[in-house]
Design goal:
The chain is an alpha/beta fold. It is 46% helix and 13% strand. Helix 7 links the parallel strand 3 and strand 4. Helix 2 runs antiparallel to helix 9, helix 4 runs parallel beside helix 8 and helix 4 packs antiparallel against helix 10. The longest helix has 30 residues.
Length: 380
């Protein structure tokens, strides 16, 4: 194994998994995504601004799997930023129980995330909103210009197709996840506002990629059977995405869980044993950070888990991975560099297990684009 996971110009790219390339291309895809949004700013603003001006507008972030976790990461942050509730509701929940989640008399903007834009639930959720909400609006963020979601078009819908490079070919979503998350943060939080931050975010991602290989290699070869990911605030959604990445790329060989720093003590902590790695995302928010550091201290004092891996932007935390130049960054900005070591760890575990990272589930019972879903008619 080389000292770095980075692909060099001299390497034969055909021998490098798409998953690895797509993790490592994220600084490029983040910059390209913001450039695309900047170029389309007038059209995007023309659609979104009148909706955000409505005090009665409900905003729902949706998707399936990793695409749903984009919403889980951003909903708390956007709720605070916009001064209104922003909800994250997975398409799988909307489709299976629409009457629990859709309100006919409440104007609703459904923000749909989809790498392929072709999963049955994604299409069905859009249709259900139109059928069950009188004033239904759609902002679609997708990585695939040929997908079903990208083909939707009417006065109440705006589609943003991200750069082709974000349409990950690997099974596990990596650069598509970060690009869609950046797009939503930029569109709903202000494209001009993100302009000033994207270069710092991308540089931090690049820096983590360049430094993470030795630590990732050691952890991947440690043989942990369980990994728990902990994060508070916006990082609880990120913990869920990180847990999914390890589960997907190890084909279920590594058992994972996720929780908040405070919630972990209420039962889930029983997963901890000598074969457990616990990953903690430490927030920059001063109050939240105290709770994150408390669980780190407790886990290390307990002496029961195999290892605690701490990711922080604060040099004083003594974290195994410290983000350079982001000590003053918003927590939403930390989402992007924090996920990278988790993606890389899942990749190396997959390779060490002898799996094919681009298609870890060799049996075909789980697929890159979900299959076997039957959409049943919903009552009015």
């Amino acid at each position: 194994m080389p000292d770095t996971l980075l692909v060099t110009d001299n390497e034969d790219l055909k021998s490098v998994p798409w998953t690895q390339r797509e993790i490592e291309q994220q600084p490029e895809t983040l910059r390209a995504t913001q450039a695309l949004l900047r170029a389309q700013q007038a059209e995007i603003h023309g659609f979104v601004a009148p909706l955000l001006a409505r005090s009665d507008l409900r905003i729902v972030l949706t998707g399936a799997g990793t695409s749903a976790f984009v919403g889980e990461c951003l909903a708390p942050w956007l709720s605070q930023l916009l001064g209104r509730p922003v909800e994250a509701v997975a398409t799988t929940d909307i489709v299976s129980a629409p009457l629990f989640h859709l309100r006919r008399e409440t104007p609703t903007l459904l923000v749909s995330f989809g790498r392929s834009g072709g999963s049955p639930e994604s299409v069905a959720a859009v249709d259900l909103l139109d059928a069950h909400v009188d004033a239904a609006f759609h902002l679609i963020v997708t990585c695939n210009a040929e997908g079903a979601l990208a083909q939707r078009g009417n006065a109440n819908t705006h589609v943003v197709v991200l750069p082709e490079l974000t349409h990950d070919r690997g099974f596990a979503m990596t650069s598509s996840f970060s690009a869609m998350m950046l797009a939503a943060l930029s569109i709903l939080g202000g494209i001009e506002v993100l302009d000033a931050r994207v270069s710092t975010i991308a540089a931090a991602v690049d820096d983590v990629i360049s430094r993470a290989a030795p630590l990732v290699e050691r952890l991947a070869r440690s043989g942990f059977k369980r990994v728990a990911y902990l994060g508070s605030g916006v990082f609880k959604g990120l913990a869920r995405e990180a847990a999914l990445k390890m589960m997907e790329l190890s084909d279920g060989a590594v058992v994972t869980c996720f929780d908040s720093a405070l919630g972990f003590r209420h039962g889930p902590k029983t997963i901890v044993n000598a074969e457990t790695l616990v990953v903690v995302f430490v927030a920059n928010d001063p109050l939240t950070r105290l709770y994150d550091l408390d669980i780190v201290e407790e886990l290390r004092s307990d002496g029961r888990c195999g290892e605690v891996l701490v990711l922080s932007a604060q040099p004083s935390d003594g974290a195994e991975i410290t983000l350079h130049g982001m000590a003053q960054a918003a927590d939403a900005d930390l989402l992007f560099p924090f996920i990278v070591p988790c993606q890389l760890l899942g990749l190396r575990v997959s390779q060490i297990l002898g799996l094919t990272p681009d298609r870890p589930n060799a049996s075909g019972t789980v697929n890159r684009v979900v299959q076997g879903v039957r959409i049943h008619a919903a009552s009015a």
